[in-house]
Amino acid sequence: MGEDVFADFTTSPVPTNEAPEWTLNAPANGSWFPVFEDGPNKLSTWEEIASWFDDESGVASLEISCTSGQTELSPSIDGSLWINVDGITQVTCQASDSSGKTSGNRTWIIGVPVSISTTSLLLDEEHPLTITRSESWEPETTVRLALSQDGQSRQAMEYSGQSTGTHEVLMPTQGIVPGPVQIWIEVVVGDQSFERTFDLGIVKESEPPLLTLGMASFDGWMWKVEGHYSDPDGEVVTFTIEIADTVHQVEVMGNTWETEWVDLAPLALGGEYDQMIIDVEITGCDQSGKCTTVQTSIDTSMNLKVVLLKPVFQPQASPRC
Fold it and tell me: What is 210-307's CATH superfamily?
């Protein structure tokens, strides 16, 4: 004869099925979520949703359901949750386990708190931006704005308040180069913060360079001139000088320019300039194609007088034998 004896030596408590719970990472009931525009908006990623709940069987075993009005919201293929925002929109979410126990509902409000516009598509020295606050948006909201180029944001301006209506801010434009300009915006409501870069069609136009004429120099019939320049946008400037339909070289050094030596003798001595006045045109163009032209004239009459006053030596005839 035999006898089977069974003994339980485990010390773990008998597992119990508890209802899933909201964690401290989950948005509080009644939280406001700012978005930038009506239409489809991502409410959260799957990683964020998974951090909202706690359950002894794991979050993956929970069924998470959200509704907005009469519409049931379902996660996308990557697990993120999207909602179609139309004005101020409410969404209610909860989690339930396999036995039907739930975490209880939490309801959040989603909408567009502010909109941004501009009255000028050409960038001004202090560019005006208009902030329009939604009348249906209740909590205090902080808006940070900055001009942006090539993904780099410049000095930010901050606007805070609960008052509805339209407000204008003037954006500093230091460091902005010619080309398209975007608007970086960050909206902060409580613990919620969203940021995005918008293209409102603003463009900074290039300003032409500034040219000044300096001293002209003569060395016989050789002539050259120099001057200074500056470009408001800090772009590289290239120069040309045209004399009697002929283009000559110009050398740039720092913020000065200087022409090469130009031989005026072919033009003045037996050339087409009977009045001895030769017109000169200097043009400077920046990288954006904006150009400035300055004109001057060369008076060669003094040089010609010197030539005419020089004694002319004729060879003497040999004496006849």
Answer: Immunoglobulins (2.60.40.10)
